[in-house]
Design a protein that fits this description.
Wax ester/triacylglycerol synthase family O-acyltransferase; O-acyltransferase_WSD1_N; six-stranded mixed β-sheet; Chloramphenicol Acetyltransferase; 30% helix; CAT-like_dom_sf; single chain; 2 domains
């Protein structure tokens, strides 16, 4: 749990246990996600739950919006992590911090679609809420879209911002808004920051020092920690924060169009145990197999390619770090036999220094892969069972192929993004075939 000071902590559900002004400071890589308008928009990460719609409806068959809003208010609206907004520091002396939104309004974060969508033909990104606009930096960075589907299910779209979470912390957040049984009692809505004021821009430097000092075991360690980072680098960061208002919108719409071209998405559901057996038979892990399948599915002219994927560095020694991953890259031949690529990826991950000896990873950069575990049993949203969770990866705007896999209830759900000029459905079908060894019936 993120540390507030030497003795108090922030529980992601119940909130802080101190009456001090609350501030949770960003790390350097998180700060980069809000450093300009393109990075900020690019790191809007959409996802999608498909939920049994019967418990979400009234007797007349219409969506029970009051019930759904009440559920969201009692879960997300009452969760500490969903009530935090961005606050920048006075004179750029510290990184930005997450502070309570003292003007929280649930209506800003929940949208209901006016039309019923066909599951087979609906734009998945629209269902997820990816086209609902750029979120405001003055309020918590999340949004939901609720859409009726013609088969009776309900699509619960969710957009989160990567500055507030990574894959692992995101899965924990998703668990906090679902329940283990359809009839589990729902706690009354609460304000986790009731009576606790947000830290002001001028209070952040003091709070940053207090929190940093509390994490140092003694004065000697504090001295060593401070001087471990060059003063010039610190000064440059302060200068960058001071000049941020002049740089934030640089390039305007033209730069945005160049950096964030239109993309589209598709997904497949596979049997997780089957994929696990196939991965072991091919000499790797499920993550190795997913990376190899993505490389093998690449349709471009470039055949020696490079793919990034995250390595988690979450640790009990750093509970204040909510977004703690580092990307690494592997290379592969898109025309190689899948078993060869799986073993190659496994070896590259296992002993990176021996494979590359500090040299750049070769190959044309195509994109990104991530694989995340969620839970092994059914989850329920507002009484309806979650039948599918469809992920779309947080990747660079100009990535050519990015895919994310989530393990849930015995299944692996794989969602992929590609530029609109490329056939994402055919590509994700080839990923499915690589991971299962079966023909993709969706395309046949």
């Amino acid at each position: 749990m993120p540390t507030l000071d030497g003795t108090t902590t922030l529980d992601p559900v119940t909130g802080p246990t101190s009456r001090e002004p609350h501030a949770e400071f960003m790390q350097i890589w998180e700060e980069g996600y809000v450093s300009n308008h393109i990075s900020f928009e690019n790191m809007h990460v959409p996802g999608l739950f498909i939920v049994d719609g019967a418990p979400l409806r009234q007797d007349d068959g219409k969506l029970d919006r009051v019930k759904i809003l009440g559920y969201i208010e009692a879960t997300m609206g009452s969760g500490a992590n969903f009530r935090l907004r961005l606050q920048r520091s006075a004179l750029g002396l510290t990184p930005p911090a997450w502070v309570p939104d003292d003007d929280f309004d649930l209506s800003r974060h929940v949208l209901f679609a006016d039309t019923v969508e066909e599951p087979a033909t609906a734009d998945l990104r629209r269902l997820a809420g990816a086209y609902d606009g750029v979120m405001s930096l003055r309020h918590p960075l999340w949004r939901m879209r609720v859409t009726e589907l013609s088969d009776g299910d309900v699509a619960i779209g969710m957009v989160m911002h990567h500055a507030s979470l990574d894959g692992l912390s995101g899965m924990k957040m998703f668990s906090s808004i679902c329940q283990k049984t359809p009839d589990a009692p729902l706690a009354a809505p609460t304000d986790p920051f009731a009576g606790i004021r947000p830290a002001s821009a001028w209070q952040l430097p003091r709070l940053a020092f207090t929190q940093w000092r509390a994490r140092q075991p003694d004065g000697k360690a504090a001295w060593a920690s401070y001087w471990s980072k060059p003063l010039l680098r610190r000064a440059r960061r302060v200068a960058a924060r001071i000049t941020l208002p002049l740089r934030y919108g640089r390039g305007g719409a033209a730069a945005r169009e160049l950096s964030l071209p239109p993309i589209h998405s598709a997904y497949r559901k596979v049997d997780a145990s089957q994929v696990g057996r196939r991965a072991r038979a091919l000499g790797g892990t499920v993550s190795d197999l997913q990376v190899a399948a993505i490389i093998g599915a690449w349709p471009g002219e470039e055949r020696i390619v490079r793919l990034r994927f995250p390595v988690s560095h979450h640790s009990a020694d750093a509970p204040h770090v909510r977004n703690h991953v580092r990307d690494m890259a592997v290379t592969g031949d898109a025309d190689a036999d899948l078993e060869v690529t799986v073993r190659s990826v496994h070896d590259q991950v296992a002993d990176r220094d021996a494979v590359f000896a500090g040299k750049p990873v070769p190959g044309f950069p195509i994109g990104y892969s991530t694989l995340l575990p969620w839970v092994s049993r059914p989850q329920y949203f507002c009484g309806g069972e979650v039948s599918a969770i469809i992920p779309f990866p947080a990747s660079l705007g100009r990535d050519q192929l990015a895919a994310a896999g989530i393990m849930y209830n015995g299944s692996l759900f794989i969602g992929a993004n590609m530029p609109v000029a490329l056939d994402v459905d055919a590509t994700v079908g080839r990923i499915y075939e690589g991971m299962t060894g079966l023909e993709d019936q969706t395309r046949s």
